[in-house]
Each structure stands twice: as structure tokens, then as C-alpha cells.
């Protein structure tokens, strides 16, 4: 599984960071987009991603910096002659937003949109390779995290035990690997389930929307490999700004991640006031604040950074050359 | 007067061209935006333009590549604490588009929007320094050109004739320059109007929206200094694509400009199929086609190119360093 940041700024774009967008790839082909701030399609032009391979768009909440890029992205996919149905998952106002924009701007698409309200997500198989569910967060409007979990996790044959039982590699091994029970020539019956090792843990990535209470993700994060969550401010700035915007600080997000024991934490959605360099309004300050309370693998997202989550749960950043 | 292109691609952005947006400055301070495709605010971040100084937004028509950047631009101006009322001029669906987006995405602004439907533009003084009127074009939906004309054109004193009449430079000259009639000590009455030279021609710039019939601008262009108009295709591609999209070719636009005798023609809104270099799908091909029929000053717009229209009507391109 891997994910690539298309925007990591909160509210407004900067010269180096766009507003929110994240491309997520599961083990099967194609990709999903989580949030689609204005200019997401421009970011996509600078990656290897194609709008033809986009399977679904998940929108965490309806603030403009998370959805104003969607109409233009849909229009461009149409101009590129996309024909495959596109799933759109989000809070119900998302559909009203899109219908209104499409009607007033006479946007016709050569493909269908399949809108799935978040409340109906549980029963839908939106993606072939990833199960998706949503977790309600706390923000100025309904906001959600999406949890993506591998559906099929391969089981390996217990080769050592097969050999010890005198069963040499052959067609029986293949059947067992595929989950098919086998009757040997000597009459022994081998039930596939008995000869397959316990499956590895299915990989899980949580992508949060805007949220001032990261503790809401505590339960979900306990079994996740990666938590991607906003850290709009340092705690000092959050205290100064006050609770009105309903965002998290690096401190609060990192504390929740530490409490959940999630091994990989990726912070994003930084206020434009935070710049490179040092000082209290730097990314370094955000990072230091999080490191003070979180001992896992900590990353601060930058636009275009791509992360790979390996089968063994190791998460690595691949900074583009 | 000057204008700067923020986007010159039709339909979808490319890696070098954004969708349509044009910044226009008159002789007074502040600036206006004509069209606001997605990513216009990102372009603005790379210029010296400030959303605080934006006086008005003019939208030629409601296709997404001309208006999908407006909600995000309005939101960012709000986050930058703009307080001045912003005029928004466009076809009536523009207001429904904005109202729908603002309602569904809970976009509140700390400044007022003054929506002026194009039909009511005639009676409004939207800009202090430029008179603006709209001319209906021909496209798949209602589309307009905006004509910007200097309001106040300074008149110079006829200094030679004043001196010949024995009236030496002094307070009387200042009064006459300001249009105030003067009674000299010798009893002579000088009417200001008699001693001011004829005003120079007011500068006029026409900015067209999408349009398959540039001849509709013939009358207006006859008295304009600059015509900025789409040339989406070469004529050969337009013939191949057919009339459905209702765009102009470089040939058709240049022919109309030649017929009107407009001294400066700036082509823009190029299909993404046209690239740098040569060959039939190059900007050079678009340029050659226009030059074949138009003998005035011809320019092909590129993103960020800024043009200055001097008081004497000379138009020059200032390519940023």
C-alpha cells in the first residue's frame, strides 16, 4: 500500500503547499483520492497518477479547502474521456454541492458518479482491495476519518510441518495454498486450514479529516499501522487562536497516537504560518512538539512525498528525486 | 493600463498553462480579475497581486474552466481578513453557483459581495477608473466580452497659445488645468474649455470570453486598443473537431481583428494539444495562422506574461525575469 500527499496546507495554499489532497493505493491497481482541495488536479499533473485509474474519491468534510477541487477534477476526467463510473463518498452536502455546481455550470460528464453517503458506507464494497469505514470526528461541521484496511491477506503454507509429515512439494501444496482440501494417495486427508500459517496482519491506514479531538480515533488507531492526521498548529498557537477553529495541535495529535500505540504517525494540514527553518512558527517546532510525546515513527508531510507501507507494516517515505 | 495572464489554457490545465484568469489594472490603484478558473489563487500567489486590492471579478461565462477558482479565491481573501466589499459581475447563474457553493460548504466571508448581473452593468460604476460594458458573444452557454475604457482622460493646457496671448505661467494656468474659468486682472475672461487641448483617446481593452463568432466584436474592436480573444484551435483542428464546442480558430479571430483594424491582438485560451516547438499542434502554428491575415501587433499569451498599454496606445509585453 502507498499514499502520496497532493496538498498539506490548511485553509489556503502557499507557494510550496497546496490545500488538502491525498492519493492512496491499495494492493490492487488503481487509486483513491481522499479530499480534493482546489488545485488537486494541478498537483496530479505533476505525478504519475492518471484520472483514468481513479477508483473513488473520499471527502472527509465540506470545507472548501477539502472539496473545491472536485468539480474541476471531474470535468478534466471527462475531457480525458473517462467512461468508468466514479464512486464519490462523503457527507450528504457533498452531493448537493456537486449537483449545484454541475447544474449552474452546465457540467456534463461522459461517466457516471456513484454517490455514497458516509452513513451508507458500511454496506458497500467501494474498493476491491480495501475495506473502508468512516469514524466521526469533531469539527465545525460533520467531519470524518476514513479507515482503509486490506481485504484479502494471503496465508503462507506451513512448509516445514508439511515436510516433517513426509509430504513433499507437489500438486498437493498448490491445492492447500489455494485453500483446497487434499486427499493423499495413502488416504490421509489434509484440511487446507490446518496447513496454512496464520495470516499476517492486514495493513490499515487511517486518514483523518479536520478534527479537534484526536482521542476520537484512539480505538481505531490501536490496530492501525499508519495514522495520518491534522496538526494545524503548535499547542501555543492553538491556545492563542482559541478553540473556535476546532483544529488539533501537534501535541494533541501526537499524544493520541502515543496512547493508541500506532507505530506510524504522519502529521499534515499545517497552518500556512508554519514555514521551513526554525523558530516557534516552523515545521521543526511542530515536529519537536510531537516528538516530545510520541516515540513511534513520526513524519511531517510535504507535498508530493510518497509513503510506502510494506506487508510487514514498515512505513517508509519516498521523497521524489 | 496593464494586464497579466494568470491562465491561458482552455478546458483543463497543463503543466505550464492554467485555465483562464486575467488580472487587469487601470490608471487608479487596485486591480480587476476577468474569469477565475481553478487555481487562479495559486497563480496570484506567484505574482505581486494582493487579494486585498482586488476591486471586482468579471466572469465571462459559467463554464468551469472560467469560474471554478472563484469560491476558493473568495475564501482565501476572507482568511486574509479582507473587509472591503467585492463586486462580482457575471451572468445570473454565477450568483446561483456561488450561493450554492457557499451554502453547502458553509463558507462565510468577512466582507460583502456585490453581485451585478451583466444586464445591469450599464448603470453601475463598478470601477472608479474604468467604464465597463459587456458585449454578447456566441458560445454553448451565454458568454460575454468585457470592454474596459478609461473614464477620465486628462486634457493638457494649450501652453503655446496661452503664452502667445500674453498669459504667463501662474495660478491662472493651474485653474484652467483643473477646468476652472479664470478672470484675469485686465478683465479678460478665460473659459477653461477654450484653453485645454483636445483630450487624447481613452484607452480601451476588450477581453472576450469563449466565442465562436469573433465578428460579434467587430464594432467594439474598431475603437479598441487591445483585443484579447480566444484562439482555441488552428483552423484545421477546428474543422476536424467540428462546430460543437463553439470556439474560434486563430484564423477566425485574426480575421475579425484585421477587419476591425484593432492595433493589438492577444490570442489566448489555447487547447492543451498545442505545445511549444513546431508542427501543426504548436503555438507557432497558431501564431503563423494569425499572422497570415493580421498585420497588427500580434501576441500569443503565456501564463504570467504582463502587458502594458501606454497612454499613447502602444502595447508592450513584459515577460517576467
From TrEMBL, chains A, B:
PANTHER family (UniProt xref): ZINC PHOSPHODIESTERASE ELAC PROTEIN 1 (PTHR46018)
Protein name per Swiss-Prot or TrEMBL: Ribonuclease Z
Protein residues bound to Zn(2+) 1: 61, 63, 139, 210
Keywords from the UniProt entry: Endonuclease, Hydrolase, Metal-binding, Nuclease, tRNA processing, Zinc
The organism of origin for this protein: Massilia pinisoli
Residues forming the catalytic site: 65
Reaction(s) catalysed (UniProt annotation): Endonucleolytic cleavage of RNA, removing extra 3' nucleotides from tRNA precursor, generating 3' termini of tRNAs. A 3'-hydroxy group is left at the tRNA terminus and a 5'-phosphoryl group is left at the trailer molecule
Keyword Metal-binding annotated: yes
EC number: 3.1.26.11
Function: Zinc phosphodiesterase, which displays some tRNA 3'-processing endonuclease activity. Probably involved in tRNA maturation, by removing a 3'-trailer from precursor tRNA.
Gene: rnz
